[in-house]
């Protein structure tokens, strides 16, 4: 009996997993499947795939809500097909990643049905979203501990930037909700891309992240015992700090984010 190809489609850097034990006609339509405009999808099969076929628009495509094919780059790495947009997906638009029947493995086994993954792109962010954010007591305590480390070394203390704290909190929430721990967000990209997206302009900027520490003293101690994180805390070029703290059920329970910057003068 001919063995079907099975595969799983998952969001890169997300703990979000779609698993198909057999290749039947399936469609994933989850309103929570909202991603950033540079979303990279990885499709993992159970066998190495035919590279020429996987790169063909006949078998692997991304389509917008009008059914029009969107240009994407497809990279084949054995049993994985990585799909990356050439340019950003449109904010607020809906798309489908389509794997069509007939796609073959290196040994000629083929998928038996077409499978689609539906996703939509977040609405474009506005700096106004962060207006009025009030840093929590823990977030303010992190600033106090950071400034204590700076002042005892003769370095100017940092000012709390409430909007930047709102952004740091949003990054922490993104890590908690999407089950990842990385400077690069699957939703917003790098810290610098995220800052730009929310309207921040700066001369220089940096980010520290941590997870699992139970209070401000513990997290600042962890950062100060790490060369790279300590360098950000004691960087004389930074003038402002945003702090985000998120406590939520998940892999680490607590997430901490520091965003440093020296704003660009208008």
From TrEMBL:
Domain SCP: 143-260
Name under which the protein is recorded: SCP domain-containing protein
UniProt xrefs under CDD domains: CAP_bacterial
A Pfam cross-reference name: CAP
UniProt entry tagged with the keyword Zinc-finger: no
Annotated SbsA Ig-like domain residues: 32-120
Protein species of origin: Pontibacillus yanchengensis Y32
Top-rank taxon, per record: Bacteria
Transmembrane segments: none
């Amino acid at each position: 009996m001919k063995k079907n190809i099975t595969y799983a489609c998952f969001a890169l850097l997300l703990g979000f997993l779609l698993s198909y034990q057999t290749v039947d006609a399936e469609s994933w339509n989850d309103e929570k499947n909202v991603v950033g405009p540079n979303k990279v999808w990885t499709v993992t099969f159970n066998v190495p795939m035919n590279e020429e076929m996987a790169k063909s628009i006949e078998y692997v495509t991304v389509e917008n809500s009008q059914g029009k094919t969107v240009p994407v780059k497809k990279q084949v790495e054995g049993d994985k097909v990585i799909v990356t947009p050439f340019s950003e997906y449109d904010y607020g638009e809906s798309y489908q990643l389509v794997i069509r029947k007939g796609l073959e493995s290196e040994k000629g086994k083929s998928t038996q049905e077409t499978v689609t993954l539906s996703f939509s792109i977040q609405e474009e962010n506005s700096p106004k979203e962060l207006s009025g954010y009030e840093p929590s007591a823990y977030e303010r305590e992190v600033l106090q501990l950071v400034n204590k480390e700076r002042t005892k070394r003769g370095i100017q203390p940092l000012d709390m930037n409430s909007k930047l704290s709102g952004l740091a909190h949003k990054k922490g929430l993104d890590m908690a909700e999407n089950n990842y721990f990385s400077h690069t967000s699957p939703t917003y990209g790098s810290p610098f891309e995220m800052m730009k997206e929310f309207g921040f302009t700066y001369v220089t900027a940096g980010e520290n992240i941590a997870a699992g520490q139970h209070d401000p003293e513990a997290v600042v101690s962890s950062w100060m015992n790490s060369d790279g994180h300590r360098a950000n805390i004691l960087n004389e070029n930074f003038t402002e700090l945003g702090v985000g703290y998120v406590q939520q059920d998940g892999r680490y329970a607590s997430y901490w984010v520091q965003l440093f910057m020296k704003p660009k003068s208008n």
